[in-house]
Automatic annotation (TrEMBL):
Transmembrane segments: none annotated. Gene3D superfamilies: Hypothetical protein. CDD domains: ASCH_ASC-1_like. This is ASCH domain-containing protein. It comes from Nonomuraea thailandensis. InterPro entries: ASCH_domain, PUA-like_sf. Residues 6-78 form the ASCH domain. Pfam families: ASCH. It comes from the Bacteria. SUPFAM superfamilies: PUA domain-like.
Length: 126
């Protein structure tokens, strides 16, 4: 199956690719499982910063937007995760094996899962 990309607002995108956040909350499900590129959208989510403060979580460096910032492995989707990142009433996309991009790559985001853009592997080349 071809690599897929998910657009996520900051700070959620950075939290996912650094391995701090182990759940992505979505209103929908997908049959897709496996490696998933995380694209940081152009918008931010104030709720994310509030929850970070509540949980005592900090991120280093600037929060990039409009770029592929890393990848995670989507292993399961359920509605009963006990993670502090899981939002009640949402589908909890359980992710593991976070990998920040070596060189974040500019890309256009979109709703839903979409095919990875051409040349995406350059973001992970050392």
């Amino acid at each position: 199956m071809r690599m897929r990309m998910l657009t996520v607002r900051q700070p959620w995108a950075a939290l996912l690719v650094t391995g701090i956040k182990d759940v992505e909350n979505r209103s929908w499900v997908t049959p897709y499982r496996g490696r998933l590129l995380i694209h940081a959208g152009l918008k931010t989510d104030a709720e994310g910063f509030e929850l970070m403060e509540e949980l005592g979580v900090a991120l280093d460096g600037p929060l990039l937007r409009g770029a592929i910032v890393g990848s995670v492995n989507l292993v399961e989707i359920r509605q009963d995760s006990t993670s502090p990142w899981a939002r009640p009433g949402e589908n909890h996309w359980l992710v593991t094996d976070a990998r920040p991009a070596v060189t974040p790559m500019a890309a256009v985001g979109a709703l839903g899962l979409r095919p990875a853009p051409a040349g995406w592997t350059k973001a992970f080349a050392a």
